[in-house]
Design goal:
1001 residues; Immunoglobulin-like; 18-stranded mixed sheet; mainly beta; single chain; elongated
Length: 1001
């Protein structure tokens, strides 16, 4: 027998095989009694009784620990309260013990309830192997099963935990842990889990769990309840579930996956993002169940299949929108922004000119912030604000929104001009016949409307032998070449020249051209009137003398001259030169270096090509272009009235000047339109198509979904019966969605947006705009300046943005966002149950509006009207007054003053020291858990009132419990829950209170 006594430090105290007395005193002690009937007193601090060494010293059985207040029986053995049967079969007495570590065998743990001799109501258990049974105390006591020590005893993998009421992944039963030693633990009544150093899978239950995963790449699902999730080290996947969760990702590239939550709404996430107004403080999220999560040290977020807003922070974020029309903002650092399916938008803090944007081979964009903004400090005690949004990878988005404009993704690359002739690109090869001077016409495209392009000779070893027209791009030899007497540098009849185009604003493009001169006399089958003339594998010159000839060059760099008649010219393999002559000629172009020559008035001609891109811009007299290949095609017209036909891929068709007819075929096609008379033809079910218009007026034809204005000046754009996305420009635009669920984005200018039928989303951007949602549940966003928003029919959301806005919801239960004292809300009687959400410090509900919610910071004064209102405050000290009617008033946090006035009102002060004034009428006062110290100033039957108080059953089970907690202090009755919660009933005699004054939920 030994007596072992600790001190105020953190001791490790070990007994003997006899009946020892061990006292820890202060500190966080670990106490091992070993054999014998020991008396173990932990004393102050967080103390652990350790049985983990019993087996090594001869203990043959698992332990049975009872920290509850009553006797417990397990395996036929009854263990008294506050005792433990150790591994040797002897019984220890435990006092002031907060944690217990078991053996490698099958241990049984019974948790305490707070009244037992063993000490605390919240216990921690370390099983350390074996098929353990841990019976938590449940209720409000939060017991923990801790697996963090398993690695010290040879564990090599993590745990899989199911605290839910139903079976989860791979048949893990409820209240079950598949342990790190291959064991299975049973954990009914346990709230909290601490994981291992390895990969753990933890599924929380319906209570408020604390889930600490530790190291490893873990998967943790909070489930229902207000959970605390501490992910620790490793690249973890976190699913919060329902409830207001506190989530700490810890170190590593953690992902917060709201898409796996399964809630009924989209999410709004702010990872300490930039200062866009989204109504959320930093490190906060509204999850898919509408609950408010706190999220820290989370770099990566995945949204839902609904409409999400995800704002990144100062990390290298990976933000995924998933399905739904999402808004992503990366913030500082180098981010990956993936919009996913549907119509998504990325936002940037600066103007369009602040960023360099390029497209990657996989179709994604690289966005580089070129400007580092430094804002001066707000005061001498605060630092300056530095904004650098780094370099982002952006994919699967349809819109880019900057501070000054919104641009469709298909038109985002507005940079230097690009040479398009002779196949485009940095190099080209052309073959011409000897004895002529004309080589080709260099052409280029420039998305910047209004630029003047200038063509020059930029170099090349033979550049001095060429001239180019600076305005038209016509490239010619200064002296006609002679095949028999070459003058090129290499002496092989291949002349190298570099041409350039510039836009006068610093943008330029160059192309290296190799011009091969062919011998007119060489291998030619001759000239003929025959229907078909076929060449050889050499460099041939074929000439038709009239009639409808077919000229087939086969291999080699051939020269084909059709002559009169409607000819078909196919140069075959090689860089061929084809001149159709008079008649309606057809050219087969299979090489980017093929050259087509047509004269004015020489018929209606067609180029047929399988190349991925082809432009008629350098072919002034060729009218039509038809794609005959597979995959995506980029086809460009010229100044004529072109007919351009795509294929089955995602094509880009640009008719150029003239009244053109464009047919995209299957696939998601993009059309460039510069005339209201341009005709776009699409079939039903043939993809999601986009028109990019520079014309001032354009209406979408049938089966074309999207329209974006990329020109200058004012624009009138009209949708159709499909779900359209219509984007305006910087002018005064009129955008009309017509039928369908449309998204309409206006940009700057004084714009008119008409949603028409369907559930539409209208964004006015800058300028004093008119937004009319029409029928359906619409979302209207005004932007800057004083806007007019008309919701029309349906449950609409109206947000005027900055400026004094006029908002009229119309029929349906509408929601108004009010952020300016000059905002005006107009509602008619009987037009739905409507809500105002405001961040103003003071607000009074207008007539016919029922609900008011404060979404800002600091104290708030909110007043209702004569209707049955619902008024909700914020986290600071609010003043809420109903204004008559049967109202519901919720103070939430802070020290609030809540006044019901006339009517049968429901008053809930929330947390804080609140003053509740019911006024006349039969009022109900609600007190949930942890409500603070509140005062009811007029409770009772005064004036015929019949007021009642509602308590949570977790606070008081019945009236008897209330009566036991009540006392008369002066003229008041004080109902005391604990030192942090009480209710004062002012000017009430305790004897007047009865069970009818209270009810419990």
């Amino acid at each position: 027998m030994a007596q072992v006594i600790g001190d105020e430090l953190n001791n490790v105290l070990v007994g003997t095989a006899e009946a020892d007395t061990i006292s820890g005193f202060g500190g966080n002690d670990t106490i091992s009694g070993l054999g014998g009937a020991d008396s173990i007193d932990g004393g102050e601090g967080f103390d652990r009784a350790s049985y983990q060494n019993d087996a090594g010293l001869g203990g043959a059985a698992g332990v049975i620990i009872n920290l509850s207040a009553t006797s417990q029986t397990s395996n036929g053995f009854t263990v008294a309260a506050g005792t433990a049967r150790d591994g040797f079969g002897t019984v220890d007495t435990l006092l002031d013990i907060e944690a217990v570590s078991g053996t490698a065998g099958a241990d049984v743990f019974f948790s305490g309830t707070g009244s037992g001799a063993a000490g605390t109501a919240s216990n921690t258990f370390f099983g350390l192997g074996g098929d353990d049974a841990v019976f938590g105390s449940g209720g409000q006591n939060a017991d923990t099963v801790d697996y963090s020590l398993d690695v010290e005893f040879g564990a090599t993998h993590g745990i899989r935990v199911n605290m839910r009421a139903q079976t989860v992944q791979e048949s893990i039963q409820p209240d079950t842990v598949l342990g790190s030693f291959g064991d299975t633990d049973f954990i009914p009544g346990i709230r909290n889990i601490t994981g291992t150093l390895f990969r753990d899978e933890i599924y929380g239950g319906n209570n408020a769990n604390v889930l600490n995963t530790g190291a490893g790449d873990d998967l943790v699902f909070g489930g229902d309840g207000n959970d605390t999730i501490i992910a620790g080290d490793g690249n973890d996947t976190i699913i919060g579930g329902a409830g207001a969760d506190a989530i700490d990702g810890g170190a590593g590239a953690d992902e917060l996956d709201y898409g796996a939550e399964g809630g009924p709404q989209g999410v709004r996430v702010n990872l300490n993002g930039l200062d866009f107004q989204i109504g959320l403080p930093p490190d906060t999220a509204i999850d898919s169940f509408g609950d408010t999560d706190t999220v820290t040290r989370i770099p990566n977020v995945t949204g839902t299949s609904l409409v999400d807003e995800i704002y990144g922070g100062n990390h290298d974020n990976v933000l995924r929108g998933g399905a739904g029309n999402d808004v992503l903002l990366g913030g500082a650092a180098n981010d990956t922004l993936d919009g996913g399916a549907d119509d998504d938008m990325v936002r940037y803090y600066g103007n369009r000119a602040d960023y360099r944007i390029s497209q990657n081979p996989d179709g994604s964009f690289t966005v580089v912030d070129l400007v580092t903004d430094i804002s001066p400090p707000a005061s001498p005690d605060t630092p300056a604000t530095i904004r650098d949004e780094g370099t982002d990878r952006v994919l699967n988005v349809e819109q880019f929104r900057f501070a000054d404009q919104t641009i469709a993704a298909a038109q985002i690359l507005i940079d230097a001009p690009s040479i398009t002739s002779d196949g485009g690109g940095g190099t080209a090869a052309i073959t011409i016949a000897e004895n002529g001077t004309i080589v080709t016409t260099v052409t280029a495209s420039d998305p910047q409307a209004g630029d003047t392009l200038t063509y020059t000779i930029a170099g090349g070893v033979d550049g001095s032998r060429f001239a180019i027209n600076s305005l038209t791009g016509l490239l010619s030899f200064l002296q006609a070449p002679d095949f028999e007497t070459p003058t090129d540098t290499g002496g092989d009849n291949v002349y190298d020249v570099t041409v350039a185009v510039s836009d006068g604003n610093g943008g330029a493009d160059t192309q290296d051209i190799a011009v091969t001169v062919a011998n007119v006399v060489g291998n030619s089958p001759g000239a003929s009137n025959a229907a078909t003339i076929t060449g050889t594998s050499e460099d041939d010159i074929l000439t038709g003398l009239g009639g409808a000839n077919a000229l087939l060059g086969l291999a080699g760099n051939d020269i084909l001259n059709g002559g009169g008649g409607s000819d078909t010219l196919d140069g075959g393999v090689g860089a061929d030169t084809m001149a159709g002559g008079t008649g309606n000629d057809s050219y087969v172009v299979d090489n980017a270096a093929d050259s087509v020559i047509e004269n004015i008035g020489a018929g209606t001609d067609t180029v047929r090509t399988a190349l991925a891109a082809y432009s008629l811009a350098g072919l002034a007299n060729v009218e039509n272009l038809s794609f005959t290949g597979a995959g995506a095609f980029s086809g460009t017209g010229n100044g004529l009235a072109n007919v351009i036909m795509g294929g089955s891929g995602n094509d880009i068709l640009d008719g150029g000047a003239g009244n053109d007819r464009m047919l995209g075929g299957l696939g998601d096609d993009i059309y460039h339109v510069d005339s209201p008379s341009d005709l776009v033809i699409e079939q039903a079910g043939a993809g999601s198509d986009l028109v990019l218009a520079t014309a001032g007026v354009f209406a979408l034809g049938a089966n074309v979904e999207n329209l974006t204005f990329v020109g200058v000046g004012n624009f009138t754009g009209t949708g159709n019966g499909s779900d359209n996305v219509i984007t305006g420009g910087a002018g005064d635009d009129t955008l009309d969605g017509r039928g369908g669920d449309d998204v309409i984005i206006a940009g700057s200018g004084t714009d008119t947006l008409l949603g028409g039928g369907g559930a539409d989303q209208l964004d006015g951007g800058a300028g004093a705009d008119l937004l009319d949602g029409g029928g359906g549940a619409d979302v209207l966003i005004g932007g800057h300046d004083a806007d007019t928003l008309l919701g029309g029919g349906g449950a609409d959301l109206l947000d005027g943005g900055l400026g004094g806005d006029r908002m009229e919801g119309g029929a349906g239960s509408d929601t108004y966002i009010v952020d300016d004292v000059l905002d005006v809300v107009i509602e008619n009687a009987g037009a739905g149950r409507d809500e105002v959400r405001t961040d103003l410090q003071t607000y009074v509900l207008a007539g016919n509006v029922e609900n008011l919610s404060f979404v800002g910071f600091g104290p708030f004064t909110g007043s209702g009207n004569g209707l049955n209102n619902s008024l909700t405050g914020g986290a600071a000290g609010d003043v809420l007054a109903s204004g008559g009617g049967n109202d519901r008033l919720s103070g939430l946090g802070g020290n609030d003053t809540v006044s019901g006035e006339a009517g049968a009102d429901i008053l809930d002060g929330g947390a804080g020291a609140d003053v509740l004034i019911g006024g006349t009428g039969n009022d109900t006062f609600i007190f949930s858990q942890n409500f603070g110290h509140d005062t009811i100033s007029d409770f009772g039957d005064v004036g015929g009132n019949n007021d009642r108080i509602q308590f949570s059953t977790a606070t008081f089970a019945n009236f008897g419990a209330v009566a036991a907690a009540s006392q008369q202090i002066g003229a008041d009755v004080v109902i005391t829950v604990d030192e942090n919660n009480s209710v004062i009933l002012a000017n009430i005699a305790i004897g007047t209170l009865g069970s009818s004054d209270f009810f419990f939920i």
